[in-house]
């Protein structure tokens, strides 16, 4: 095997130059280590399970893995959005969830072994890193306490998810949408124009509503200066929309 072939097998890139182009930055390493699961592992084990891999780019529509593939890894998203879905026998696609930057996916399937119960597809341009399951299981065998540390981290993440679900219950549909839109920008006042990160039906799924409810809720936000043109959203006054999103459940 040539050196170039070896690089391609280990990292997924065709040569050192391509690997360097997508190498993890110091800020990305800090972002990774701030995630409870990786924080529980510690930097030495994280470096071991990553096998010097870099974040891999995925274009919109690219398949990360398919339902039924061997569940030998889990994944962390640096940038972008990933859809997890199941294909029914009649061919209909059922979206399970949508994940975004700072989140992991497929870890439960990897720990259980067997095969992935869902497929994963990038629904926007994304940068994702693969974590080797065999290396992680070996690390746990060598240091059993790691399993308890990771379980504690997963439990903390579960509590956070439950809190987020509770928050959804107390927000009206337009407020949920407003909160989602505000999270796509990084300004606190003034006007803002953003591009919806993926199709509206998937956004509705992530926010726990039907596509019809999403469209109606988005229309109600016009009264607060929110205009929509295809996948572009213009917010006239970010601070005004923020105040509305943070109120107790109210309709417009």
Question: Would you write up a description of this structure?
Answer:
The termini are far apart. It contains 12 helices and 11 strands. It folds into 2 domains: 3-168, Jelly Rolls (Sandwich); 171-246, Winged helix-like DNA-binding domain superfamily/Winged helix DNA-binding domain (Arc Repressor Mutant, subunit A). With 252 residues, the chain is of the alpha+beta class. It has a 4-stranded antiparallel β-sheet.
User: Mind describing the biggest β-sheet?
Assistant: 4 strands, antiparallel
User: What is the fourth-level CATH superfamily of the largest domain?
Assistant: Jelly Rolls
- The name of the CATH architecture of the largest domain is Sandwich
N-end to C-end Cα span? 65 Å
Provide the domain count.
2
Task: Indicate the percent of residues in helices.
Answer: 40-55%
Total number of helical segments?
Answer: 12
CATH top level of the largest domain is Mainly Beta
Low-confidence stretches: 1-13
Please report which band the strand proportion falls in: under 5%, 5-15%, 15-25%, 25-35%, 35-45% or over 45%.
15-25%
Q: Would you tell me the structural class of the helices and strands?
A: alpha+beta
Q: In the CATH scheme, what's the topology name of the largest domain?
A: Jelly Rolls
